[in-house]
Amino acid sequence: MNLSNPLPPIWENYKITVDGLxxxxxxxxxxxDLDRRRLLQRTxxxxxxxxxxxxxxxxxxxxxxxxxxxxxxLWAAFERFLRIYLQNKCAILKNMTPTxxxxxxxxxxxxxxxxxxPDEILDFLKLNVLxxxxxxxxxxxxxxxxxxxxxxxNQQGKKIYPDFAxxxxxxxxxxxxxNK
Length: 180
Prior knowledge:
This protein is mostly helical. It has one domain (about 5-180). Helix content is about 70%, strand content about 0%. The protein has eight helices and no strands. The chain has helices spanning about 5-30, 35-40, 45-50, 55-90, 100-110, 120-125, 135-150, 160-180. α1 (about 5-30) packs antiparallel against α4 (about 55-90). The chain is elongated.
């Protein structure tokens, strides 16, 4: 099984994006007009909002959106990892006899796992590979609910921050990868 953790590049992109917002705030506050224009050339701020005075408010709003979107991205990568992991794990079914039956069961499972609800997958894992760390499944469910809220435009639930999502989902992936 050649499966790897998909989260590190997403996490790096998040950190770079947050750093970029910090740089923009500093650039806008640069006192020297020539330096300010040079730093902001070919940016939205220089074209659409050159006199932005409330850069902190705008950057905070952008960071809130970035946080939510990266939680969604982390979840999407995690969920795809889970499904591929289960599909790979169950490839052993193809070796059962009679082989036609084994391959048929595997083909059915391979397609059906795409329709399993994430909560059900997490409940299943909680009883097995996560049984010594059951709270991880509960935390992952919280991340899933937050992701669903964001995707469906409902932002009234409990907020999940990218660092929590990354740490939780990464820990689950590490446990799964240790149980290849």
